[in-house]
């Protein structure tokens, strides 16, 4: 048939009909290789236009609606598909215009069969060599029962990868009870309706070709949206269509949710929205974070676009300003480019409508860059004729979120600022709270198998060490600061890092490689606390690998140039690795590289499914802990678990970091703008500046004055600040910083502006850097020169599963107080500090502490009754007596081994404990003229 409604009759033989059908189907999916869909799904056969499918009509387009109605959606039950004599049949197949698009296997739990049985049937019976099940022939294959649904886009026998297609229930897997029917009836009542299915075909289902830039090798994969992706994008589009431009949306989607695809589907459909025959949105701006792989989102969007040149990657600020002023439909960029593009923007876009999609909202939309972006898009940036009052008003407007833009913020870990800025407000008990517009939780992602639970196998390593005094005197130090320095000294010591490197290499070979994790492909990451420690680990792990004659190598990743142990020349990670940092992700996939040692780099945004084990030697907290450990959670065929070995954190601290993001994250209340008045009053109390100072400095600054005109006023204020008492300096500077921080946030969301606050914010931003922090003498200086490491050992605790509270979490709003103070030094002698430190980090966590304590109290008396020891005390010198004491102690330990193997093991394996017990026994028993030692009466019980 020809384009539109004209028909051309073509007579074909039966063999030609078969060939045409094959060519038509190949053609349909061939289109998907290049673009989403054309105006019609069509092609030429013998110079005849073939129309396979008419797309969904736009509003008020009667002709398109008439054509769409010509599509024939049909269902066939018990479809026989096998060409052999087995007469295998499929429960259901959906056709559009005679072409198969969806297959189904249906099960009923009342007959003791479920989706798992349907999946097994697909794997066993549906041979991908059969025409119906060959790759790219059908769009999707569904396994369905009365409670759950699974789907697969590529049947490959036992290697077929079926994924859940469920709504989710109680923020987890499965489907909610349905008062109107089966729990899975949404599949045919919603998803498989004609309009919805057509939209999926046109806008979501896709064949994507990835090309390796180095080898040119192509990898083809077929994409079908997961339920939460489809529901999220459709809900957002529906809300924008109904409510227009200007709203804010927060999407809390867990890692592993397929965020790049969700953003791509949203972006390319936002530009198609129309109202009254005109586009609702002129340009979609996708703002990514430089720290993540922004290229992934850019390429994903391009693969979904019908016309690829509608997507512009603004790599430089000039390209960004040009793309905005030219009204490009989709612009992908980073937030940092807006300040540089600002001076180059004109006013021609002032009346345009924007959609701003923010990837990783907590880092991609904050502070000055966000205000610059809003100011740029508002069209207020290019008027050089503004007076200072106009500029103040423009800056206030620049802080505000645009009314001519809708914001779509994606994140897995929303902070309080993010929730209040982009979340949906609701009332609860008279309090205004905020929640995400759409949620796909970490809990659901784990239960559905899209990500793995990184807390399921968590092992902490306790470090026990003893420091000794290396100076004769007993100087005084600040105890709190000294403890921190001592801990850092021990954990960063070459000897201790060498010990931990040995544990890491042994564990990796014996628990990861030997057990064939991820089919023998598993990788590991070592997270270090600093670049010097990272480099130390690099050499230590290399040494341990060489000891084992290991076939594997490590990669190190850190930024900049650094000296190893002060040696020249400085080294970079690229020099140590032998290839550029940009190639680290690619090289890490290839043997012999199996272990990646990092300092900050690759702790966020690094997506490597083969990463199985993480060795943590860095204190982690809050979102940083979640993002770092989540590098492990990517699902992969054959990846059944993950493992964390942690030298630096306690399980309860990791639990506290993860719990706010396990289910829906809610902001408990909104920030009170009246707190700004309190902060202004707190600053006014110290009279460091006055209103004239603020106005003078701000007017000079906005007028482009040089430093020599600004500094005299600021310096005069600084002099007044320095005359304050130390505590008052702390109060003033803390209040000033709190004002700048809080106003910078509230200025974006308050419905009104305050010119005085805007001026004060500008003034304080200029003044604060000039205010010296109250000097705190470091009364722990020199302690590291007075100590040395006497003993060190590690002990692994039992692997545990860290359980998270199964409830929505509320987080507090942005703090508006200052809360700053100076710690009063707690001075102690070095000997006391070392004793406390050794008690804190050298104690042994006994399983049967009471029994051990009882026997330790009895041991001196048992040793003192040894005849040879008694004779040595009477007739020999102290050194000989000590030798006999140690011999007798060993015999006692062996005698009581049957009663307390734990005590024996510590004596044998722990040098510091052995020395302590030996000293204790000798000090209590020596010089008693050979008489047996008797413990004091009060300790006998």
Uncertain regions: pLDDT < 50 for 5+ in a row? 1-10, 27-46, 290-294, 342-346, 937-941
Supply the CATH superfamily name of the largest domain: P-loop containing nucleotide triphosphate hydrolases
Work out the strand percent: 15-25%
> Care to count the β-strands?
32
How many individual helices?
Answer: 33
Kindly identify the CATH topology of the largest domain: Rossmann fold
Multimeric state = single chain
**How many domain units?**
4
Distance between the termini: 101 Å
Q: What value does the Rg take, in angstroms?
A: 35 Å
Mean pLDDT: 80
What is the correct CATH architecture of the largest domain? 3-Layer(aba) Sandwich
User: What is the general shape?
Assistant: globular
Mind telling me the CATH class of the largest domain?
Alpha Beta
Structural class: alpha/beta
Give the proportion of residues in helices: 40-55%
- The largest beta-sheet arranges its strands as 15-16-14-17-18-11-21
Profile the largest sheet.
7 strands, parallel
């Amino acid at each position: 048939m020809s384009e539109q409604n004209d028909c051309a009759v073509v007579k074909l033989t039966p063999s030609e009909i078969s060939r045409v059908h094959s060519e038509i189907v190949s053609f349909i999916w061939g289109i998907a290789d290049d673009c989403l869909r054309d105006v019609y799904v069509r092609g030429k056969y013998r110079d005849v236009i073939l129309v396979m499918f008419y797309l969904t009509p736009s509003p008020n387009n009667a002709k398109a609606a008439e054509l769409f109605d010509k599509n024939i959606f049909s269902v066939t039950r018990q479809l026989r598909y096998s060409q052999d004599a087995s007469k295998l049949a499929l429960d259901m197949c959906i056709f559009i215009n005679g072409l198969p698009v969806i297959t189904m296997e249906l099960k009923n739990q009342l007959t003791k069969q479920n989706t798992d049985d349907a999946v097994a049937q697909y794997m066993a019976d549906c041979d991908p060599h059969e025409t119906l099940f060959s790759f790219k022939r059908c769009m999707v294959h569904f396994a369905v029962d009365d409670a759950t649904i699974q789907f697969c886009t590529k049947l490959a026998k036992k290697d077929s990868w079926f994924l859940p297609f469920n709504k989710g229930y109680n923020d987890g897997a499965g489907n909610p009870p349905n008062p109107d029917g089966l729990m899975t009836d949404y599949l045919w009542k919603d998803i498989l309706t004609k309009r919805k299915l057509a939209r999926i075909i046109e806008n979501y289902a896709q064949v994507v070709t990835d090309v390796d830039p180095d080898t040119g090798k192509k990898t083809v994969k077929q994409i079908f949206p997961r339920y939460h992706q489809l529901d999220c994008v459709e809900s957002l589009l529906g809300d924008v269509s109904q409510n227009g431009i200007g709203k804010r949306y927060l999407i809390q989607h867990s890692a592993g949710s397929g965020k790049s695809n969700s953003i791509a589907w949203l972006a390319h459909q936002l530009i198609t929205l129309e109202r009254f025959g005109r586009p609702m949105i002129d340009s979609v701006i996708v703002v990514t974070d430089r720290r993540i792989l922004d290229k992934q989102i850019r390429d994903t969007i391009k693969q979904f676009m019908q016309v690829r040149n509608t997507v512009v990657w603004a790599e430089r600020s000039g390209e960004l300003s040009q793309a905005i002023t030219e009204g490009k439909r989709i612009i992908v960029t980073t937030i940092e480019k807006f300040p540089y593009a600002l001076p180059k923007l004109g006013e021609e876009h002032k009346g345009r409508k924007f959609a701003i999609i923010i990837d990783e909202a907590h880092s991609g939309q904050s502070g000055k860059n966000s205000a610059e972006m809003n100011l740029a898009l508002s069209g207020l940036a290019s008027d050089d004729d503004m007076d200072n009052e106009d500029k103040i008003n423009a800056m206030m407007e620049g802080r505000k979120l645009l009314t001519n833009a809708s914001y779509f913020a994606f994140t897995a870990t929303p902070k309080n600022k993010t929730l209040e800025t982009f979340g949906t407000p609701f009332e609860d008990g008279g309090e205004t709270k905020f929640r995400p517009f759409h949620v796909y939780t970490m809990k659901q992602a784990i239960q559905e198998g899209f990500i793995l639970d990184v807390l399921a196998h968590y092992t902490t390593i306790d470090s026990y060490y003893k420091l000794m005094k290396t100076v004769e005197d007993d100087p005084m130090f600040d105890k709190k600061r000294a403890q921190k320095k001592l801990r850092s000294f021990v954990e960063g010591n070459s000897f201790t890092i060498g010990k931990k490197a040995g544990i890491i290499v042994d564990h990796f070979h014996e628990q990861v490689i030997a057990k064939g994790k991820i089919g023998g492909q598993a990788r590991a990451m070592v997270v270090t606390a600093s670049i010097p420690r990272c480099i130390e680990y690099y050499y230590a792990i290399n040494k341990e690998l060489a000891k084992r004659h290991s076939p594997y190598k490590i990669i190190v990743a850190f930024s900049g140039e650094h000296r190893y142990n002060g040696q020249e020349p400085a080294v970079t990670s690229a020099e140590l690795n032998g290839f550029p940092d940009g190639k680290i992700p690619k090289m890490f996939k290839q043997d012999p590289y199996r272990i990646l040692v990092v300092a900050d780099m690759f702790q966020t945004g690094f997506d490597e499914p083969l990463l199985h084990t993480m060795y943590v030697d860095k204190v982690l907290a809050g979102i940083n802990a979640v993002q770092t450990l989540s590098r492990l959670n990517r699902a992969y065929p054959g990846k059944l678990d993950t493992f964390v070995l942690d030298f630096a954190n306690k399980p309860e601290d990791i639990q506290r970091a993860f719990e706010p993001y396990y289910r829906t994250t809610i902001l408990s209340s909104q920030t009170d703008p009246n707190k700004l008045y309190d902060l202004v009053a707190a600053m006014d109390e110290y009279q460091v500046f006055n209103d004239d100072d603020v106005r003078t400095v701000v007017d000079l600054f906005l007028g482009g004055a040089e430093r020599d005109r600004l500094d005299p006023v600021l310096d005069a204020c600084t002099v007044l600040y320095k005359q304050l008492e130390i505590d008052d300096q702390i109060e003033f500077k803390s209040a000033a910083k709190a004002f700048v921080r809080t106003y910078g946030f509230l200025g974006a969301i308050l419905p009104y502006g305050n010119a005085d606050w805007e001026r004060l914010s500008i003034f304080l931003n200029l003044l604060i850097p000039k205010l010296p922090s109250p000097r705190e003498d470091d009364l722990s200086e020199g302690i590291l020169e007075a100590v040395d490491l006497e003993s060190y050992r590690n002990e692994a605790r039992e692997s545990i599963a860290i359980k998270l509270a199964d409830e929505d979490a509320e987080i507090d709003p942005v703090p508006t107080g200052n809360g700053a103070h100076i710690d009063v030094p707690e001075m102690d002698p070095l000997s006391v500090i070392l004793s406390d430190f050794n008690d804190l980090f050298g104690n042994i966590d006994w399983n049967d502490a009471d029994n051990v304590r009882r026997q330790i109290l009895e041991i001196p008396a048992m040793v003192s009754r040894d005849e040879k020891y008694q004779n040595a005390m009477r007739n020999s010198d102290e050194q000989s007596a000590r030798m006999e004491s140690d011999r007798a102690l060993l015999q006692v330990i062996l005698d009581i081994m049957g009663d307390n193997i734990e005590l024996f093991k510590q004596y044998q394996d722990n040098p510091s404990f052995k020395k302590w017990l030996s000293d204790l026994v000798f000090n209590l028993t020596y010089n008693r003229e050979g008489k047996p030692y008797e413990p004091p009466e009060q300790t006998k019980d």
